[in-house]
Amino acid sequence: MRVSIIVPAFNEERLLADSLVEIKKASAVFALRGWAVELIVCDNNSTDNTAGIARTAGATVVFEPLNQIARARNTGAAAATGDWLLFVDADSHPTRELFGDAAEQILSGRVLAGGATIQMDATTFAARVTLGLWNLVSRWRMLMAGSFIFVEAAAFRSVGGFSHEWFAGEELDLSLRLKKLARNTGRRVVILHRHPIWTSARKIRLYTPWEHIRLMVRVVTSGGRSLRNREDTHLWYDGRR
User: Of 14, 132, 212, 231, which sits with the fewest C-beta atoms within 10 Å of its C-beta?
Assistant: First the structure.
């Protein structure tokens, strides 16, 4: 078995090194099973030392010139040689226990893809409520958060990977397509919850409540179409870190 861990990264010099340390520590559970592991960082046209930090950590670095999360993940996947692909965001820390749970699901043969619930250092009441609601919906509807996704490489490629039509929410679109494929092939998509993935709450700190509210209003009133517009999804692309 070969596993490819893919990290999309745009101007992530502040958080990437720590995340890669945690990813490599968590990857030990795969090595204990005799699985080969490769670590790929996709430099999504960064203007800082993101690529240098990734190379120092021993990752294979690939470059995606068009600044879009979906493209960065797909470019990383295109370079991957693994039987299974694991996508981990550059501001997220998986644990050995989470990777171990994913490995058990892979070995079961019944799972096509999966994600995990999220934990973050959110301090505001609104942020904690929103995160709790997302985790409930994620488990109920089997919707994967982009901070951690594991998927069979053949299945990922058969559905066309992440859609370039989306500047945010691309993982939800992928979840729906993988769920359909899973139903048609007698397998399933799962959301792991015993060991949530830790991800940074920096967007909560960097953007005002009104900016978050305006984003949500645009998403709701447009029926989700605003997530296909770079200007409407500036929280992901304006470079604040």
Answer: 231
Residue extents of the structural domains in the chain = 2-200
* Dihedral sign, Cα of residue 120, residue 239, residue 138, residue 30: negative
CATH class of 2-200: alpha beta
Indicate whether this model's pTM tops 0.90. yes
CB 82 within 8 A of CB 4: yes
Dump pLDDT digits (tens) for 30-67.
Answer: 999 999 999 999 999 999 999 999 999 999 999 999 99
Q: What is the pLDDT of residues 208-217, one digit of tens each?
A: 888 888 888 8
Q: Are 7 and 20 in contact (CB under 8 A)?
A: yes
Q: Tell me 39's DSSP state.
A: E
Q: What percent of the chain is helix, strand and coil (3-state, nearest 5)?
A: 50, 20, 30
Cα gap 112→58, rounded to integer Å = 29
Give the pairing of strands 2-9 and 36-43.
Answer: parallel
Q: Which amino acid is at 90?
A: A
